[in-house]
């Protein structure tokens, strides 16, 4: 019961129907979650994937963050393979991705470098070589989010995993400090699934936090991870006319962009370079808090406020460009992100906490499950071009029955913002899904999975594991 003078409500106890018993439950169908589900199922585990939206892909699709950067280091050496490579190849067959030819990886050719500068995509495609002082092209892919949604559905269903869309994983089932299942809400009501291993791919650590795992939520307000973002695309833009105006009326253009910013619009755009979507432009609009503090992606009131203001910003920008900027007269809004860009937040405290010191250690961990290009550490990126990720970053310190496969992996805030992007999360998911299948088959806890067995399995999947590890 609840009376009007009470500020709390005691929810009545009720029996919840268990709709399935399985080996592995993945909560969250973003890049890490899809990779987890696909790899767990491919390794013989009965697998269920629960996703709150009506599509898979998370930030890569619904968030319109359709960029897979840092697949190679500054020299052009590719480090990320495995499921990332498979996914890009599948999209390539459907005309759903664009990336530099291999001959350009590591190149400082001015024509190629200028192409990415002109598209305003330099942050994703160009990295400074502090030895030569030049900028070099790295292997980065952009993808068509609509084709990606369909391809991810195919990959999950082909793997044999069961998929629940429109389902919000809202509470872990915990017994004796071990996660045993998940309660989820949908139009079908409140239901439960029991499993041997649960993988938290929610991005914000919804499962491990509610299960009682230790976590870190410190965010530096100056970093990307502390800001929410909204993405919107315009198409049918006459880019030649736009370029001519910018070049011949540069001062006027700057004044117009300053006016747009004063009106609450977003003045910075990327030229869309997908080969099947010519004459489009992309706006990635960060939404920093007015008070300078880090955004809180767990505050529903803040999420609501930002989403409303971000959509107003998109239409303000569109109206202004159509009225004042040559080339945009016949343009229209092609897409707006169906979900707000949440880039950082809670991170599990795992058996190993990755820190900035690891970017210069060159350590090959005994439990390495991925090698990532270390492209965003300034001068040290040239001297230390890669970073090994230990499996222990996916394993909570004390909580059993659960792994983490998303941006909430065990890491400091300083390093998380460099290594929590889409290809990285796919790597974490590939390792977590494989480990979960091994643990479920053996009837052991994920923390007790044999590292060499895991690495050998990942190597067979095409993952780049350093020589001498898992072979």
Task: Walk me through what this model shows.
The structure is a single chain. The chain is of the alpha+beta class and 471 residues long. It has 13 helices and 23 strands. Strand 16 and strand 17 form a beta hairpin. Helix 1 packs parallel to helix 5.
Strand runs, count: 23
State Rg: 23 Å
Q: What is the average per-residue confidence, as pLDDT, rounded to a whole number?
A: 95
Strand order of the largest sheet: 9-3-2-13-23
Shape: globular
Tally of separate helices? 13
**Broad structural category:** alpha+beta
Largest sheet: 5 strands, parallel
Percent helix: 25-40%
Taken as a percent bin, the fraction of beta residues is: 15-25%
Span between N and C termini?
Answer: 61 Å
Are there runs of 5+ residues with pLDDT below 50, and where? none
Describe this structure in a few short sentences.
With 471 residues, this protein is α+β, with helices and mostly antiparallel strands. 31% of the residues lie in helices and 21% in strands. Helix 1 (31-42) packs parallel to helix 5, helix 1 packs parallel to helix 12 (422-442) and helix 7 packs across helix 8.
């Amino acid at each position: 019961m609840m009376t009007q003078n009470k500020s709390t409500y005691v929810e009545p106890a009720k029996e919840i129907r268990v709709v399935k018993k399985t080996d592995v439950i993945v909560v969250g169908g973003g890049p890490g979650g899809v990779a987890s589900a696909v790899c767990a199922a491919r390794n013989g585990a009965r697998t269920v994937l629960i996703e709150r939206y009506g599509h898979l892909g998370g930030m890569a699709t619904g968030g319109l963050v359709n960029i897979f950067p840092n697949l190679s280091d500054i020299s052009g050496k590719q480090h990320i393979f495995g499921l990332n490579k498979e996914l890009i190849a599948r999209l390539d067959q459907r005309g759903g991705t664009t990336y530099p030819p291999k001959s350009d990886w590591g190149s400082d050719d001015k024509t190629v470098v200028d192409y990415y500068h002109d598209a305003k995509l330099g942050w994703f495609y160009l990295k400074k070589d502090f030895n030569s002082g030049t900028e070099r092209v790295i292997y980065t892919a952009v993808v068509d989010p609509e084709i990606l949604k369909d391809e991810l559905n195919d990959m999950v269903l082909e793997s044999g995993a069961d998929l629940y869309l429109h389902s919000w994983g809202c509470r872990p089932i915990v017994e004796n400090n071990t996660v045993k299942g998940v309660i989820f809400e949908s139009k079908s009501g409140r239901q439960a699934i029991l499993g041997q291993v649960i993988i938290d791919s929610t991005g914000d650590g919804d499962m491990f936090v509610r299960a009682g795992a230790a976590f870190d939520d410190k965010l530096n307000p100056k970093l990307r991870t502390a800001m929410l973002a909204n993405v919107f695309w315009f198409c049918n833009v006459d880019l030649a006319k736009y370029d001519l105006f910018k070049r011949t009326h540069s001062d006027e253009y700057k004044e117009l962009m300053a006016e747009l910013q004063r009106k609450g619009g977003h003045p910075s755009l990327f030229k869309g370079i997908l080969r099947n979507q010519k004459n489009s432009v992309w706006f990635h609009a960060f939404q920093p808090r007015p008070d300078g503090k880090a955004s809180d992606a767990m505050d529903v009131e803040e999420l609501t406020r930002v989403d409303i203001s971000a959509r107003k910003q998109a239409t303000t920008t569109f109206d202004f460009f159509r009225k004042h900027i040559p080339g945009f007269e016949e343009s229209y809004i092609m897409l707006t992100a169906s979900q707000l860009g949440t880039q950082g937040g809670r991170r599990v405290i795992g058996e190993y906490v990755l820190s900035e010191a690891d970017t210069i250690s060159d350590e090959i961990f005994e439990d390495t499950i991925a090698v990532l290009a270390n492209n965003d550490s300034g001068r040290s990126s040239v001297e230390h071009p890669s970073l090994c990720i230990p499996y222990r970053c996916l394993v909570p310190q004390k909580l059993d029955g659960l792994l983490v496969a998303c941006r909430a992996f065990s890491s400091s805030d300083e390093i998380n913002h460099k290594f929590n992007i889409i290809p990285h999360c796919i790597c974490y998911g590939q390792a977590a899904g494989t480990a979960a299948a091994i643990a479920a088959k053996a009837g052991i806890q994920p923390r007790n999975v044999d590292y060499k067995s895991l690495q050998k399995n990942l190597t067979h999947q095409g993952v780049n594991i350093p020589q001498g590890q898992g072979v």
